[in-house]
Design a protein that fits this description.
By secondary structure, this protein is an alpha/beta fold. It has two domains: 174 residues, NAD(P)-binding Rossmann-like Domain (Rossmann fold); 126 residues, Orthogonal Bundle (N-(1-d-carboxylethyl)-l-norvaline Dehydrogenase, domain 2), CATH 1.10.1040.10. The protein has twelve helices and ten strands. A five-stranded parallel sheet has the order 5-2-1-6-7, sandwiched between helices. Helix 8 crosses helix 11. The radius of gyration is 19 Å and the shape is globular.
Length: 308
Amino acid sequence: MRVLVVGAGAIGGYFGGRLLQAGRDITFLVREKRASELASAGLVIRSPNGDVTLKKPPTVEASTIKDKFDVVLLSCKAYDLDDAIKSFAPAVGAQTSIIPMLNGMLHLDTLDRTFGRERVLGGLCAIAVTLNAQREVVQLQPMQSLNFGERDGTMSDRVRAIAEVFSSVNGAGASAHIMQDMWEKWVFLASIAASTCLMRGPVGAIVAAPGGKDFLLGILDECTAVAKAAGHEPGGPSFQRFKGLLTAEGSPMTASMFRDIQAGAKVEADHVIGDMIARADDAKIPVPKLRTAYTHLKAYETLREANG
């Protein structure tokens, strides 16, 4: 099975690298600069789960794609989705399965319109990983997961085949309830992103502030209500773990969106928070805390654009 990993940044580099390390047929779709870096230094992974340097990993650039792939593993930011689609579209054939690992749900509509719903699986990952100054992939914590599945909940032959290929990666596997998984992740992500971005600090600092814990739980309640209206009310052990993480005293946890703000980078305001608000409006659910956080994020975007 041939797998095209779109990008060799933090997430694509980690999961694609682990698959390549296990001897799977992996090709990275990268730009010219990243291709040069990988050709000279290799794909370097620094991780609590073991370091590895993969010399001269197979790469391809958008302009040179000639073959169709069985699987496209997509891990770009939401604001890069349109450009990513243009780059990997030539690799998509009649039997190609696309596994998007973007946050939220809005990207599914875009991918469905472009490639057809039958080619787009549900997918998500959970991992703390970044690129350092040397352009190495650095995993910050040992926890990791990558899940995918049919959006109707069936365990199809193609999902079983992909699961077999991905079984070499710790924490990777098929899910028979991938849409529920995606909604639960989105609820947690929107809650922690809205809270840490708005308060400009980690969970522990918010919890320690007067009214901070109530604010965090209030954000979580708003997002949970939206998910419930969509037929995916969060619950069970994973949701309780998310709730615990969101209210842990002394926790240094922040959302990647907050770290993007600190770095002066682009953020996924519309995809993670704005779309949650849009779905709340459709369901006539009041979400005042989310609206405040969204206004804050859009003000940041306006100032960032004005300052170049």
